[in-house]
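Re-run with default settings, no changes from the original entry. Doing this only to confirm the output is reproducible before filing.
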Amino acid sequence: AAKYSELEAEKTSLKAELQDRIKSLQLDVDTSRDNLTQMETILANAESQSAALKAEMERHIDGLKTELDASHAKSIDLESSLVAEREASAAKYSELEAEKTSIEAELQDRIESHNAEVESIRENLTHMQTKLTDAESQSAA
């Protein structure tokens, strides 16, 4: 009878310990889910910002190209009679070309930066998903 009581007490203790471990694992799973949701939100925001920035830069570049084309056409029309005007227009053309190149480089840098940020977030999501899967596997076990 004493042996039975001892086994019952040990069984009760093991059940309580198992319940505590299950609660702890469930908390880990819930925390991982929350973190995953936050990371997904951050990723969606970063992708949205990247797309908006790219669209804004493309519109700006298109505007510069239009302005550049208009400036060049004016230069060609006035070339025969207004040499000084042509030189000023060519200078403007070079300035716009340099600005366009600068903006394209800035756009590329921002896109690469956003892509790196998005990739980092994706890696974090993958890591969190792995943790979540591991926690769920442990919880199920």
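The chain has two helices and no strands. The radius of gyration is 32 Å.
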